[in-house]
Amino acid sequence: MFRGNFETSIDAKGRTSLPAKFREVLVDSFGDERFFMTNSNPVRLGDGGYSSGLVIYPYNEWLALEEKLKVGTGLGLSSAELASVKRRIVAPAVECVADKLGRILVPPHLRKSACLEREILFVGMLNKAEIWSQAEWEKVFRQDIENFPIDSPVLAELGL
């Protein structure tokens, strides 16, 4: 599973390094070095705005997600909502693999949508990983504090 936060940088051409731990997880936990990169779900901020990063799905996790979205039934989404998800998440997705040195290329359309300019952060999210600009991550992390389910019986049950 993907765990931890890793600060790094991205250059003007969109090159960055996938953390070594994440490369290991792709192969050891998911059996494939390939992955898909796309926009993450937008996060609603307290000021009424939105923030978004990128998300990395292991290859087979992505294929399973595509199948669910292709069928579309039983997801609880209207046809307009499903179309929005497909346009926002599926359409910009790119298949990737890190080179021997662990470098990946983030395409311009994804860099732009996630506001990735220089300092970035890889965030482990168990079965997927996220990529955020440092500035956007700080906004989202502050919002997470607001959204955190304090005194939740579910969290207590989990031991959190």
Provide structural commentary:
The protein is of the alpha+beta class and 160 residues long. It has one domain: Chemotaxis protein chec. Helices cover 39% and strands 24% of the residues. The protein has helices spanning 20-30, 59-71, 79-90, 108-113, 134-147, 153-158, and strands at residues 5-9, 15-17, 35-39, 43-44, 50-51, 54-58, 94-96, 103-105, 119-124, 129-133. A hairpin with a 4-residue loop joins β9 and β10. The longest helix is centred in the C-terminal third of the chain and has 14 residues, at 134-147. The protein is globular. The mean pLDDT is 95.
Can you count the helices? 6
Helix content: 25-40%
Range of strand content: 15-25%
Number of domains: 1
Number of strands: 10
Mean pLDDT: 95
Name the CATH homologous superfamily: Transcriptional regulator MraZ domain
Q: Which strands sit side by side, in order, in the main sheet?
A: 1-9-10-6-3-7
Rg estimate, integer Å: 16 Å
Write a short abstract of this structure.
Belongs to the MraZ family. The chain has 160 residues and is an alpha+beta fold.
Quick tags:
6 helices, Transcriptional regulator MraZ, two-stranded antiparallel sheet, 160 residues, cytoplasm, Chemotaxis protein chec, alpha+beta, globular, MraZ_dom
